Amino acid sequence: MRCSKPLVAITIATALLSGCTNTSTLPEATTRASLTTDVNNYQYLIGPGDRLNIFVWRNPELSTQVVVRPDGKVTTSLVEDLDVAGRTPTMLAREIEDALSTYVNSPRVTVSVNNFSGPLSEQVRVIGEASQPRAVNYSEHMTLLDLMISVGGLTNFADGNGAKLIRVVNGKKRVFELNIDDLIRDGDITENVDMLPGDIVIIPEAWF
Q1: Residue 103, CB half-sphere, CA atoms under 13 Å: how many?
Q2: Which of 140, 157, 197, 203 has the fewest CB atoms below 10 angstroms from its CB?
Q3: DSSP 168-179
Q4: H or E stretch including 10?
């Protein structure tokens, strides 16, 4: 059954790598993300699949739990089809307050999130020869080692030192080399690098 998997991975990787600028090195992981000041002040953005707890102070009949639909919207008691994807919980709370102010005098709203999914632009994707290739929710200060733990490491067929990282930098896709074998099999912590929202890691199959 493995015969089709390399072909699919190669096809996806070819499409992703086309039009990218190649470069060889990334800064090592630090105690905080090293490549963008935006991530140093990272705030979670709501996305489809998130479960929201909406609490309206002194109005329990308006407080509710909702799941963000695939179109990024929710419907609450008095507010239909409210766009929530891409907002922080605080931003959304203020928008709900504005919407409810038509019906409630000076509403006070708190929004909390469960079952985090986040928008696709905030996820880190791993394809190819990871044990569990998938999209992973970005966490503040996430490193390559954290990411590999979340996908179960490499398969026995992986060429970890042939892995590539695709990242958008200043609006352009760039490709960086990753030495995952050195990191997780040899313990070379200098190969640990910071991950950023939207990163894509491609792990090819080794040619024995």
Answers
A1: 11
A2: 140
A3: EETTEEEEEEE-
A4: helix 4-17
CATH architecture of 51-114: 2-Layer Sandwich (3.30)
Whether the per-residue pLDDT at 1 is higher than 60: the answer is no
- 182 is written with which tokens? 């050195």
Three-class SS state of 143: strand
Residues in the chain: 208
- Alpha-carbon span 204 to 138, nearest angstrom: 22
Cα angle 144, 113, 130; round to 5: 25
* Amino acid identity at 199: D
The enclosing H or E element of 15 equals: helix 4-17
DSSP state of 148: H
What are the phi and psi torsion angles at 102 (to 5°)?
-70, -30
Listed in order, the ranges of the chain carrying CATH 3.10.560.10 are: 4-41+120-203
Radius of gyration of the chain (CA): 21
Supply φ then ψ for residue 13, to 5 degrees: -65, -40
Coil, strand or helix at 120: helix
- pLDDT given for residue 184 in this prediction: 95
Interacting residues of 4 by C-beta distance below 8 A, sequence separation 6+? none
- pLDDT, tens digit, 9 for 90 and up, residues 135-194: 999 988 899 999 999 999 999 999 999 999 999 988 899 999 999 999 999 999 999 999
pTM value is 0.77
